[in-house]
Amino acid sequence: MAGTQVKILVPGNHLMAGLLGHRDELLRLVEGAFDDVRVSVRGNEISLEGERAERVGALFEELIILLESGQGLDVGQVNRTIDMMHEDIRPSEVLTSELLRSPRGRTVRPKTAGQKRYTDAIASNIVTFGIGPAGTGKSYLAVALAVQALQAHQVNRIILTRPAVEAGERLGFLPGDLMAKVDPYLRPLYDALHDLIEPEGAQRLIDRGSVEVAPLAFMRGRTLNDSFIILDEAQNTTPEQMKMFLTRIGFNSKVVVTGDITQIDVAGGRSGLVGLDAILSDVPDLAFVHLTRRDVVRHRIVADIVAAFDSGAMADGTRES
Predict the structure, then answer these.
(1) 3-class DSSP state of 258
(2) Which of helix, strand or coil describes residue 44?
(3) Are the C-beta atoms of 113 and 87 separated by less than 8 Å?
(4) pLDDT tens across 129-152, in order?
(5) What is the pLDDT, as a whole number, of residue 318?
(6) Is 52 in contact with 36 (CB distance < 8 Å)?
(7) What is the per-residue pLDDT for 195?
(8) Burial environment of residue 211 by CB neighbours within 10 A (0 to 12, 13 to 18, 19 or more)
(9) Backbone angles phi and psi of 35, in degrees to 5
(10) Which residues does residue 41 pair with via DSSP β-bridges, in sequence order?
């Protein structure tokens, strides 16, 4: 195998073990992704030879930076890092960006280049639309940034809202008052909030009005000032509801709208999210970020399922709706 030769010296046995993985499984991932590069390991030195040896050397250097920052490497993270290198993106610039540290000591970071674009857009715009499939962290990252803004006193409250769309079941048959009926629709937002703030703290914020979780219908007629507002599952709004929601924005507020246009349950399929980027493309301080299956950070099978559905839709000649 002819080509460039590169040597990487890994500073420390503990980093070497983390870099190669259990029984060298992470090393095998790299070898499989760059099968035209010969990789050999001796002690703390990694030798590379091949046309893309410099690219693989840069990959190992990026992985070392992640390890030195205190992050552990696993199969999912190494695969995402390899994807970024293929796109000429520096993984260390994406994966070391800290958004929030939870009370349990967990650090919330973007895990893909798409997620980094999404969080950067939220930081620099008044209104951000995050559109993409399940598992891309659209809602979770938005809630994390909302909590960060509340803790930094950049806003006075967080408002989490979703349309309560009936998907195969009737609200009227559910027990309890209106809030009890719509609570299952809002549960994913509660779950994200409780994961980022200890449950008692989250409940205190809700009790004193610093966090409001409510169905979209409750937004009508209001002006939302000094708030971080998240509209989740926006593909299930009607165009009229979307216009109503976007005209609630008051002073010193930030809005994040999330949705997946492949999972529309609204009656008649008239989604307020579809085609909205063309309508709002010239509005300043407003951004659209489209996430893809490459940004899925749940179990790898979720990305494979999304890809299978996408391929099936194309094979059938059907339009995603």
Answers:
(1) strand
(2) coil
(3) yes
(4) 999 998 899 999 999 999 999 999
(5) 46
(6) yes
(7) 83
(8) buried
(9) -75, -5
(10) 46
Q: Which two tokens stand for residue 141?
A: 């990252």
Using CA atoms, how far apart are residues 147 and 157, in angstroms rounded to an integer? 9
Token pair, residue 249, equals: 């924005």
pTM check: above 0.85: no
Q: How far apart are CA 271 and CA 281, in angstroms?
A: 18
In angstroms, rounded to a whole number, what is the distance separating the alpha carbons of residues 113 and 123? 15
SS3 helix, strand, coil % of the chain, rounded to 5?
50, 15, 35
Say which residue the tokens 């409001």 belong to: 212
**Cβ–Cβ < 8 Å for 59, 85:** yes
Burial grade of 177 (CB within 10 A; 0-12, 13-18, 19 or more): exposed
Token pair listed for 146: 């909302």
Are the C-beta atoms of 118 and 88 separated by less than 8 Å?
no
Cα gap 225→154, rounded to integer Å: 12
CA dist 66 to 70, 73, 77, 244, Å? 7, 8, 10, 44
The pLDDT assigned to 254 comes to: 98
Low-confidence residues of the chain: pLDDT under 70: 1-2, 103-105, 165-185, 298-304, 306-307, 310-321
The pLDDT assigned to 206 comes to 87
DSSP letter at 97? -
Cα–Cα–Cα angle for 238, 127, 154, nearest 5°? 130
In the numeric block, the tokens 């719509």 are attached to 182
Q: Tell me the two tokens of residue 282.
A: 């010239």
Identify the pLDDT of residue 169: 39
Element (H, E) at 31: helix 25-33
CB-based contacts of 252, cutoff 8 Å, min separation 6: 155, 225, 226
Angle between helices 75-86 and 300-316 (to 10 degrees): 50
Rg (CA), the chain: 22
